[in-house]
Automatic annotation (TrEMBL):
The keyword Repressor does not apply. SUPFAM superfamilies: FAD-binding/transporter-associated domain-like, FAD-linked oxidases, C-terminal domain. It comes from Ferruginivarius sediminum. Its cofactor is FAD. One of its GO terms (molecular function) is oxidoreductase activity. Pfam families: FAD-oxidase_C (PF02913), FAD_binding_4 (PF01565). InterPro entries: FAD-bd_oxidored_4_C, FAD-bd_PCMH, FAD-bd_PCMH-like_sf, FAD-bd_PCMH_sub2, FAD-linked_Oxase-like_C, FAD-linked_OxidoTrans_Type4, Oxid_FAD_bind_N, Vanillyl_alc_oxidase_C-sub2. Keywords: FAD, Flavoprotein, Oxidoreductase. This is FAD-binding protein. Transmembrane segments: none annotated. Residues 46-224 form the FAD-binding PCMH-type domain.
Length: 493
C-alpha cells in the first residue's frame, strides 16, 4: 500500500475539526474502537484502520469533503456496505474512509420508463422489494444482495446468478450522479436508453472507486416473467456437468441462469438450507428458464435431453414458486454454508471460456492436493465466472500464505486458458499484483491515464488495481534519445 503521508498524520486534529464543520453531529468517527468496524471489507485477511471515517448524508457534504481533500492532498477511500471480496474498500492509515451508508433512500420509481432512481446505499435486494408488488424486479442479483449496496455494485460491476441472460450491473445502469475529487458534481446518462458521445457510464461501472464517488444511480427494472422454473441436474463428475453447460449454450438456449456446485459445496449448502439437493452426485447444475409457459416447457425438455446425453444421473424440476426459491436459496447461501465447515475460507473470482470448465476444475483438484487445502466450487457456470472457496485456518502455521498462493495459481490458470482475473468482485488489492499476468506495461499505463484524467493527484482509492501507480506527470513524459524528441517534425502544443 502507499506509504502514509506523515505531514497529513501530523495534522489529524486539524483535519478532523474541519471535517466536523462539514459533517456535523455523529458523521465523523475517530475513536479507535469505533474505527475497527471499518478496518476491513469482505476480504478479511487484510486489515488497516483508517485515519478517520466520514459519514455524509447529503451530496453537498460529499462535495465539500472531496473539495477539502483535494485542496489538502488527503487520500479518500469510498465505501458502500463493505461486502467487497477483493479489498476494494481497504482503508489507508493516512486517509479518509468515506462511507455512503446514510444514502439509503429510493428517490423515484418510474414504471412508465421502467426505472428506479436510488441513492448508493440502497441494497440491491431493496430495489426489487420496492417494485415487486407491481410485478417488476431488478435483474442483477449477487449472492450478497440482501446486504450489498447498489453503489458498491456499480463500483465492482457486480453480476449474480441471472447475469447470463440479463447482464451485469453495467448492462442495467442508465445513469449516475457522481462527485469528482475536486468536489464537482456531474451527471452521466439518465432515464433514456442511450447517451450520445463517449460511453462514460462504461468507465464508471467497475471503476472501483478510483474515478469518483457515486451519489445517485438510475437502474432499469424489468417486468417479472410469466413463468420461471428451475431444474436440478446431478452428474457423476464435474467434467460431465461442465460439458452440459457448454452444450446448453451452444444449442442456442439462453437460460436465465446456470449455476454449478461441486460435492463439497452441495453438502455444505444442503446441510445449511435443506434445499433438497441430491447428496450422491459429484456435481450439480441449477438451470433456470423463464418466459411464456409453453416456451419454458419446451426449453426444459431440451435441457433434459442434453443433460441425459452428457451422463446426468439425477433431475428434479421445481413444481412451484416456493420450490424454485428453495433451489436458489441453497446456492445463494453457499458461501456462509462453507463458512460453517471451515474456520476461514478465501473466495476467488476468475472467469474462463465455458468450454474450458472441465479442464480448469481438473487442474484445481491437482492444486488442492499440492497445497494440502480443500476447495469447494460454486459458480456462475453459464458465463464461466468461477468462485472457488479455498478452506484454511489462519491460526494454523502457513495456511493463509498457502491459501493466497493457491488462489493466485487459480487466477493465473484462468488467464492461461483465455479468461480474465475477475468477473464481478473487482481487482482491489487482492488481484492487483497479478495484473501483469494479463496486461503488459503499455496496457496498464493506458488504463492509468484514464485515472489521471479524473484524479490527477492520485487521491482516490490509491493502492488498488494497479501494481505500480505512476505519477500522472511520469505517464506524460516523452523519451529523449541523444537530445532529440521522437517525431521532431510534429507540432507540439
Amino acid at each position: 500500500m502507499p506509504e502514509p503521508k506523515r505531514d497529513i498524520l501530523a495534522r489529524k486534529d486539524e483535519i478532523v475539526a474541519r471535517l466536523r464543520d462539514i459533517v456535523p453531529g455523529e458523521g465523523v468517527i475517530v475513536r479507535e474502537e469505533e474505527l475497527r468496524a471499518y478496518e476491513t471489507d469482505g476480504l478479511t485477511a487484510y486489515r488497516q484502520s483508517p485515519m478517520v471515517v466520514v459519514l455524509p448524508s447529503t451530496v453537498e457534504q460529499v462535495s465539500k469533503v472531496m473539495a477539502y481533500c483535494h485542496e489538502q492532498g488527503i487520500r479518500v477511500v469510498p465505501r458502500g456496505a463493505g461486502t467487497s471480496l477483493s479489498g476494494g474498500a481497504l482503508p489507508l492509515e493516512d486517509g479518509i474512509l468515506l462511507g455512503l451508508g446514510k444514502f439509503n433512500r429510493i428517490l423515484e420509481i418510474d414504471y412508465e420508463n421502467r426505472c428506479v432512481v436510488a441513492q448508493p446505499g440502497v441494497t440491491n435486494l431493496g430495489i426489487t422489494k420496492a417494485v415487486e408488488h407491481e410485478g417488476f424486479y431488478y435483474a442483477p442479483d449477487p449472492s450478497s444482495q440482501i446486504a450489498c449496496s447498489i453503489g458498491g455494485n456499480v463500483a465492482e460491476n457486480s453480476g449474480g446468478v441471472h447475469c447470463l441472460k440479463y447482464g451485469l450491473t453495467t448492462n442495467n445502469v442508465l445513469g449516475v450522479e457522481m462527485v469528482l475529487i475536486d468536489g464537482t458534481v456531474v451527471r452521466l446518462g439518465g432515464k433514456h436508453l442511450d447517451s450520445d458521445g463517449y460511453d462514460m457510464l462504461g468507465l464508471i461501472n467497475g471503476s472501483e472507486g478510483l474515478l469518483g464517488v457515486v451519489t445517485e444511480v438510475t437502474v432499469r427494472i424489468l417486468k417479472s416473467p410469466e413463468t420461471a422454473r428451475a431444474v436440478l441436474v446431478g452428474f457423476p463428475s464435474n467434467e460431465q456437468a461442465g460439458d452440459t453447460v457448454a452444450a446448453i449454450i451452444s444449442s442456442g438456449i439462453v437460460p436465465a441462469g446456470v449455476e454449478m456446485m461441486d460435492k463439497p459445496a452441495i453438502h455444505a449448502a444442503e446441510d445449511f438450507v435443506q434445499a433438497g439437493y441430491p447428496l450422491d452426485v459429484e456435481a450439480l447444475l441449477i438451470c433456470e428458464l423463464d418466459g411464456p409457459e409453453a416456451e419454458v416447457d419446451e426449453l426444459l425438455a431440451r435441457v433434459s435431453r442434453l443433460a441425459e446425453e452428457n451422463g446426468a444421473t439425477y433431475e428434479r424440476v421445481s413444481k412451484d414458486e416456493e420450490e424454485r426459491a428453495r433451489f436458489w436459496a441453497g446456492r445463494k447461501a453457499a458461501f456462509p454454508a462453507v463458512g460453517r465447515v471451515t474456520p476461514d475460507y478465501y473466495c476467488m473470482d476468475g472467469t474462463i471460456p465455458r468450454h474450458r470448465l472441465a479442464h480448469v476444475l481438473g487442474r484445481m483438484r491437482e492444486m488442492s492436493e499440492h497445497y494440502g487445502l480443500r476447495v469447494a466450487n460454486v459458480f456462475h457456470a453459464g458465463d464461466g465466472n468461477l468462485h472457488p472457496l479455498i478452506m484454511y485456518d489462519a491460526n494454523e502455521g502457513d495456511q493463509l500464505e498457502r491459501a493466497e498462493n493457491f488462489g493466485a495459481d487459480i487466477l493465473k490458470l484462468c488467464v492461461e486458458v483465455g479468461g480474465v482475473l475477475t468477473g464481478e468482485h473487482g481487482v482491489g488489492v487482492e488481484k492487483r499484483d497479478l495484473m501483469g499476468t494479463m496486461f503488459n506495461e503499455v496496457d496498464l499505463n493506458t488504463q492509468q491515464r484514464v485515472k489521471c484524467a479524473f484524479d490527477p493527484n492520485g487521491l482516490l482509492n490509491p493502492g488498488k488495481v494497479f501494481p505500480t501507480l505512476h505519477r500522472c506527470a511520469e505517464l506524460g513524459r516523452m523519451h529523449i534519445s541523444r537530445g532529440k524528441m521522437p517525431f521532431p517534425d510534429l507540432p507540439r502544443f
